[in-house]
Amino acid sequence: MECKLSKEQEGSISKPNLWHMAVYAVYVATGFLGIAFVSFPPGHISVVWLPSGIAFLAILLLGPLATLPVFLGSLTIKLPYLYDDDRALLSLSVLTLVAAIETLQGWIAHKFWNSHFQERGISSGADVLTFFLRVAFASCAFTVWLIVLLFIATGYLQNDLNVLQNWAENTVVITMAHTLGIFLVVALYQSYWLVKQDPWTLKEIKIGLATLACLLTVCAISFSYTELSLYLLLPIFLILIIHTGYAGSSIGLTLVSFWTIIATANGNGPFVADDNYISMIHIMIFVLCMGLTMQFSALTLDNLNANKRHMAKTIQRRTEELEKKNRQLLELASTDHLTGLCNRRSFEKIANKELERAQRYQTPLSILALDLDFFKTINDSYGHPFGDEVLKAFTDVCLDCLRKTDLMARLGGEEFVVLLPETTEYLATNVGEKLRLAISEIRLTTNEGIDVSITCSIGVTTATMQDDNIASLLHRADEALYDAKKFGRNKVCTYKRLQEAGFDLPQ
């Protein structure tokens, strides 16, 4: 399973103007919502800054033109901080530079992504940590410190030790907030694409909803039983990973992260501390550790399942190919390659079963032994290729005269045999005569333009209760065939000696 932004996804968005407006709207909305619900005083610093993830994703998908709505969105979010109590806090020029730096952050993250993941994407568990460090964290760490240097250079940040210490703490928190924003947004986007490409089954949806409901229940319990709730999260996340994979675990992680932040900001949950800075750091460590662990586990499990499915398909395909080859080998082993008829081995196997059935149910069973007259002369005079054409034509004519229940086989050379179930000797003789007449009408032309006609001699016999196997019938049919040859060929003869031996032949 590959969790990646494909080349088709990158820069492939249609109606760019609408998408640019959507980027601006989503960027501003997530920014103000983050300040309102997932931020801590003083300074209203958000624990997870989703606009950073929106910026990265927009530039990655829409290209360089997406920097404009990102820049305008960042500037819009910061405009309320231009004045406070009729006192200028930050000049418009400084706010503009800050917005430009945050836009640069998305651009740098996009470049880092192209350097490390453009070809293969986040395709394994090990890639999760690499993405976090080399794309999300690296781009944020570089740009957030530029903002601090900007404030120092413009005089908005005094060289006071306490002020610098406070800003150092805030810088760490802001860096992590932007990093987690990129981390979670990309995870949610990939979850969307994974579910779109491989939709969840109804069972997976039910399990996912039930598990998410359990997550929210545990989060609610955390208001009263803070320590217990953290332990309860582990098996629930494990169920999400096993049954819904990367997509479900990313959604669950996002819900728990924001629930935890909102609860802590309102004085509830396991991460409440006297110092908001400590609370924010604890929440970030929790979200980071859970996120890395869950996504690593989910991607690893998804890859194992994908490999398992691929292996199962490969085994199934190779099994089908092997069965096909076996059928072909069986057909070659039981079929005459020239005429497509059964060979001697296959015929004897089928004929013996028919003999047993005929004797069990006391139904007649007859055999015709056929032999082409003067076939050796045809082969010697016109060549073996022409002889093969004669055998094929002979086979086709015979099959046209027989029933579907009859079985014709080539015993070798110009010798053939026909098994006639539920056919008396009298009827078998009629069938033999029908075959003889049809064969005598065959006309073939050699390459030299010589017309050749063929005839055949046919011996007929019928099974009795004393026959142990089909070999005795073949022997009697051959004797009758010999008589047909003896009396001038192109004839049908029955095995009359059966009556002399005392066998009661059905008529």
UniProtKB/TrEMBL annotation:
One of its GO terms (molecular function) is diguanylate cyclase activity. CDD domains: GGDEF. It catalyses: 2 GTP = 3',3'-c-di-GMP + 2 diphosphate. Its main location: membrane. The chain crosses the membrane at residues 21-41, 53-77, 89-108, 128-152, 172-195, 207-225, 232-265, 277-301. It comes from the Bacteria. Signal peptide: none annotated. It holds the Pfam family GGDEF. InterPro entries: Diguanylate_Cyclase, GGDEF_dom, MASE1, Nucleotide_cyclase, Rev_trsase/Diguanyl_cyclase. PROSITE patterns: GGDEF. GO terms for cellular component: plasma membrane. It is a multi-pass membrane protein. Gene3D superfamilies: 3.30.70.270. It is found in: Cell membrane. Keywords: Cell membrane, Membrane, Transmembrane, Transmembrane helix. Its EC number is 2.7.7.65. Residues 363-497 form the GGDEF domain. Its cofactor is Mg(2+). This is diguanylate cyclase.
